[in-house]
Design a protein that fits this description.
By secondary structure, this protein is of the alpha/beta class. It is about 40% helix and about 20% strand. It has a five-stranded parallel β-sheet, sandwiched between helices. Strands 6-7-10-8-9 form a five-stranded mixed β-sheet.
Length: about 280
Amino acid sequence: MPKGDKGEGILTLVASPIGNDLDFSPRARSVIEGADLIAAEDTRRFLALCSREKMSVKGKIFSYYDQVEKGKAAKIVDEVLSGAKAVLISDAGMPVINDPGYVVVNEAIKRGAKVTCVPGPCAAVTALILSGFRADKFCFEGFVPRKEGERKREFEKLRSEERTAIFYESAKRLEGSLKGMEEILGPNRRICIARELTKEHEEVLRLTLGQAAGLKGIMGEIALVVEGCPPRKGEAADFVEEAERMAREGARLKDAVKEIAKREGVSAHELYEKVQESRRGK
């Protein structure tokens, strides 16, 4: 296999468009056209991109998807250590981010091969910055689990998660996921549903889970951005006296507890129990 002009091997992760080919960068084109080998998640989609972008590709092209990643990673790194310029590109967006690439990157790092990246489109980050939610701290959770039990456990984690959470979801499972989120997180937690990002029919919906749970017929590639839980300002026990004061002033205890819990980001159930414990101790 012919090697790059400088003889120094390198593995380059290249971002591909998630919907709009104008997002494909000149640097990405240059790296691909100068590569000795290209590992593509789907060779047909990669060749279609090459055709649309009128790229002249001279390197060897082969498929590199989840099921073959472990078997091909070592061979790619062998080529890089021998001086080849290798490219890894996924169907859409950034390699490694819910796409193949993790195994070969770690293999390259372990064996001392040079690795770099041509950054570009990423649906998760695009949805995040369009959501209007905090982006200084966030977590990406990949696709929502298919099984109901696993999905419920995943959503339970979000009860007290203060970071903004990002998921991918398929259109056919979206309705069930939204209802499941509402049941666990409540109707007031906000969510952003971003579909067909960068494409002609891009749509970004910013709703509460109560509003979103009734949605039907949303199609396309979907990213969900869930607002983080409001930071807790204290523990439930810290607000027992305030709840008692509001009750003495005429409020129903349950109403007082709900108001405080919503304002302070504590559990209403826990606060109510703390009030009852306090009363039993007197």
